[in-house]
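Severity: low
Component: inverse-folding endpoint
Summary: output formatting inconsistent between runs
Steps to reproduce: submit the following structure tokens with default settings.
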């Protein structure tokens, strides 16, 4: 049985599924991608809401991954960085927790936050 005769099914048309299909095609296979939604991209999607583009879902993109650098055109994505931390709405106000070892300006806001105790921070 030749490569083109073997049936390979990939479940999900997210980033990993699409890259798997590309790699298999490079090796002469003809995979079939099965996706339950009516769009590709998995958790990576953008919707228009009241004329604005809104990213939906949660995805952390770690640019240092060698395979990501190999398959994605990072320079075309117009990526933006976020401060290492979180804003938490608690008791009718916003609290900030951050990794002040990577972003020293978050030091005082994190230590004075009512979220968690000193040891947690």
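Observed output (run 2 of 3):
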């Amino acid at each position: 049985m030749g490569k083109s005769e073997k049936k390979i099914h990939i479940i999900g048309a997210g980033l990993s599924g699409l890259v798997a299909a590309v790699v298999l095609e490079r090796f002469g296979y003809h995979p079939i991608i099965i996706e339950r939604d009516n769009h590709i991209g998995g958790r990576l999607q953008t919707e228009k809401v009241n004329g604005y583009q809104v990213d939906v879902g949660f995805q952390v993109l770690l640019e240092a991954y060698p395979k990501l650098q190999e398959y994605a055109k990072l320079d075309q994505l117009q990526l933006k960085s976020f401060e290492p931390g979180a804003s938490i709405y608690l008791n009718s106000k916003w609290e900030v927790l951050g990794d002040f070892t990577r972003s020293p300006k978050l030091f005082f806001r994190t230590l004075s936050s009512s979220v968690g105790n000193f040891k947690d921070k």
